């Protein structure tokens, strides 16, 4: 086995020396045996360099190699674009196979030996006198190859190809002449094969670029945004078809070389477009979501949302601007419609709030009606008594004054003598006015009138307590006093009527501390809850007889409890009326929900009560009820809550 470095190839046989110029400025000197036809070698080299397909060139090269070397198998190896060596052709005197296989994956070649040649660039030729191989190769040991030649082909110092030739049965058939000639032919062929590879690579790159260009064009043509790009002189370099149509030209090609002032925009629009272009290119910063109006020839206005980014080369230098915009006129109109609808909705909401406020005022007026009716009823009795008693008091006073006048007449200090007649007249008048009864009844009458006056004063105080105006901030107040005032105002409704017996009120008041609250609002809550309970009994009177109602006393129970450790108080107002089912209970605090007949309820009383307790006082208002088991409202309030603004109307 002979291993030759590339420098040992020239002048192997001094009998004939020729010089062939190959590649660019590269000359290989080698000896050619007189046994080989030099003209045939040149003809073969010309054939390999001719205009034939790449696969055909590989086939031709393998056939020439086998013919010149007289071997029975040869193979050609080339590096791919990544530098990985691959088998590309393998031939025998019977057939040529064009393949693309990694060196290590092909079993019918001495891959280890070939890899050694690739790494060392040394030619290996099997010599019968030297059979020791530089590297172990399984293929060679298994097939007992008698002759082989593994030739690296260099071009300008670079390994471009490896040729492997073998003969299975004959030894010593490869000579240095074969090495020289095959090296020359493979070098010539390698140049053409490399050109083929470069051509294929350029064709692939061209095809890829063309595909990318077509894909880019398709994207530009189909995306909803309109695309354009300009150079630093604000001259258009290209655009999408949609942009061309909007600019008033037929095709994107027509816009190339024009500026905004050459298109259908107005001068003001063109100046605005250029100002943004200049800003983007000077600052190398994108301008996004620019809202721009664009006047159309028909007088309509398009609204465009434009974004512009700088175009930079590999060094980061700005050479232009890329812009895109989307026609958002429909969106703009939709936004205007939404804005208008929002304004209408706000107005509707304001109207609704106004209507709600009016209904709340109506509810308050209804409460005020209960209050006025109760006050009028409670005051009418003492006033009626006073009206009737005043006449009696006036008569008593007149009789007493007349009687006193008689005394003054007959017992004055100027009268020294009084006749029996005069004394008799005084006694007669005393008997006439029934002085003894008058002395007994007149003080009693005055006491009764004083009691009536006290009653009116108490009612007035209760009215003042109930209707006290709330301030902006919470104040300390006695809840028991508020409940008592409310009951006094509703007392006339608790009394018996022709339809039902009197409603009993049981009060179980605990030792409640004064709490920080809006007293007027809480009095309204007490009024609404107690009036609701009375309404339940009034409705029952329409369905049951007086006797049936007497069998089960109609009762309202008020229980107040303080939980000092929990900083809260509870007020429970319970009736033993008809109760309610779960569906009604779930909606009992909803605005405008009522179970009363038309004209008998606004559906706001309990809703307002819930709002006052939960929002204005940070408390809770809960209801417990079952059909035929009565209803209980539980008010839970903090004892010392933080001051808050008065939010409830």
UniProtKB/TrEMBL annotation:
Keywords noted in UniProt: ATP-binding, Kinase, Nucleotide-binding, Phosphoprotein, Transferase, Two-component regulatory system
Domain Histidine kinase: 374-641
PROSITE patterns: HIS_KIN, PAC
GO molecular-function term, one example from the UniProt record: phosphorelay sensor kinase activity
Record SUPFAM superfamilies: ATPase domain of HSP90 chaperone/DNA topoisomerase II/histidine kinase, GAF domain-like, Homodimeric domain of signal transducing histidine kinase, PYP-like sensor domain (PAS domain)
Pfam family, one: HATPase_c
Domain PAC, residue spans: 284-340
Keyword Kinase found: yes
Entry keyword annotation includes Nucleotide-binding: yes
EC number: 2.7.13.3
Domain of life of the organism encoding this protein: Bacteria
Catalytic reaction equation(s): ATP + protein L-histidine = ADP + protein N-phospho-L-histidine
Protein name: histidine kinase
